[in-house]
Amino acid sequence: MVKNMKLPVCPYCHTVYRYGDVKGELSKKKHNCYNCKNKFKISVKAVVMLFVVIEIICAFTDIGELFLIKSISFPAIMITNIVINLVGIILIPYFVVFRAEKGGEIRRKSPDTKSYRNKRPKTNVR
Ligand SMILES: [Zn+2]
User: Fold this and answer.
1) DSSP type of residue 113
2) How many structural domains is the chain composed of?
3) pLDDT at residue number 73
4) What is the phi/psi pair of residue 13, to 5°?
5) Could you tell me the distance, in angstroms and rounded to a whole number, from the CA of residue 32 to the centre of ligand 1?
6) What are the Cα distances from residue 19, in Å, to 5, 9, 91, 111, 118?
7) 24, part of any domain
8) Span from the CA of 103 to the centroid of ligand 1 (angstroms)
9) What residues pair up with 43 in beta bridges, in sequence order?
């Protein structure tokens, strides 16, 4: 699973967004690629799935704790749940997907003309 974890890329020019950039995009309403300026939208479907899994993990951890540690206190269980959810929050940018928006692509007259030749985006830097 860790192998598949990657930060989202622009659906047009495939610029890889850094962790901080993804967080920045999540706080914005409109999304334009900082490299190619095309419009995209953010899909959080995978993020929702991530949290479904996290809540299941929480539930099982709570049950496990209750069984293993008889004298466990409620705050201890709460802290465990908070920690697990924090891990999920940290992972959010890896589960965000950028999708092309209909009509979001700026039509370039001819992308391969000299004026664009030197501005080719660095794709898949990593
Ligand atoms: Zn782009």
Assistant:
1) S
2) 1
3) 86
4) -110, -5
5) 8
6) 12, 11, 10, 29, 27
7) yes
8) 14
9) 97
